Amino acid sequence: MAGLLTETPLSPEQRDFVATIWQSGETLLGLINDLLDFSKLEAKQMQLAEEHFSLAGCIEDMVDLLAVTAHRKGLELTTYIAPTVPPALYGDMGRLRQMLLNLVGNAVKFTEHGSVQVVASGSEPENGRIWVELTVTDTGIGMTPEQVSRVFQPFEQADVQIGRRFGGTGLGLSICRQLAELMGGAIEVQSTLGVGSCFTLRMPLGVGSLPEPAAQSPLAGKRVLVVSRAELTGQVLGRMTRDWQMDSVVLTAPEVTADQLGELAPFDVMIWYVTDLDGEGLGWLAGRSHPKLVGTKMILATNMGLVSRVRQSEELSYDAYLVSPIKQSQLQRTLGQLFRTETAVQIRADEPPRVRPPLPKSLRILVAEDNLINQKVIVRQLQSLGYGVALAGTGLEVLSMLEKAPIDLILMDCQMPDLDGYETTSRIRSLEDRCRSQVVIAALTANDSTEENQRCMQAGMDAFLTKPVRQHQLEEFIASWGAIATQRRECFCV
Predict the structure, then answer these.
(1) Domain range holding 34?
(2) Could you tell me the pTM of the whole model?
């Protein structure tokens, strides 16, 4: 409901109140999920799923979730995926993402100044498998040797004061360790009090596709100058461009003059990374005006707020803009477009461009849910997408409504009185065997286990949505399944 409320007209104060309610709910949900996962692991009932996925995509998506928090704290958040990581891997992406989100989330939470860096690398493939190493390094509060010795113990935090200051259950790292071991891997930490921590996660994963053999990059030989006021980001950008066989020069300094840049020129492209546009920052950017840099392609990398300001400036114009934290896929596409080449390095080669299909204009949707609050939330979410909704509170009501009118799509709660969602779906499918129409049915369940997913599929459901369902998840589901539902649209007969 808090998510829906943000879509209504609100004053700044009201929006702040809603954001607090939303964050409190998310925190509580996180605590509950931690307890459930810990219970499953302790009972040895945790099931792993296997699917093809992009590690680069997993890391970049995870960073998107934490970018705003890192920016508010003034932290430098960087990621680097080495060329040794295959474009496609095979394993439990969901659990790997869970571990990464916990490690990087902790790094951002416990770091007040400085940086958080995520690096991924891979070993030589052997028998279709590879060891992937993920390191998360921060400049946060750090830990003593005694604190390190118990950091992976359940319900433990570095000390009581830290628990009171930062919150949490103390289960996250314990869950990470148990998940890593369940997947055949390991996790370790090195830390110095007052300096920071480095968590290393090593995981064996299947290889979905091998890295392309070393070949001439379309960007090979292009000369690039990276100018950054932040040393770590400058180093990372240098590594990325060198991976693409570019002649990369990195200049990290608080101030850069036009004469300094003129001495290093010429360049094919310059990447400027700035964190602010105060008087000093504007003067720093003025160094680009040297005559030897005329004709050099210019890329500005900064946060979203500054990108908007620069685009409105008549004095500062650029050929392209990058929003930090800078992603390799984002940078490679930008360079490829500037030089009109093919993409420099396909670090997400297994994934097609994310173009969401348009939402179908008309769908006949039935929500089968006995909980009144859940009914209200889902109905409002669907209405905000422009759909009318029919409601049923029991499985028997669903069957009765299908006899009276055709339905394209059903959101089916698995736990309903009289007739649960599984049995209701089975009956619908048995009736459809005598007809030409097949309604799209998506499970609504709070249980996201593999067993639950399999049970829903065996009952005849098409898709699986975990409660609480987010607005964007519902929209993505309808975009994916709406067209299928429209194609299936015919008379439902019994």
Answers:
(1) 1-40
(2) 0.66
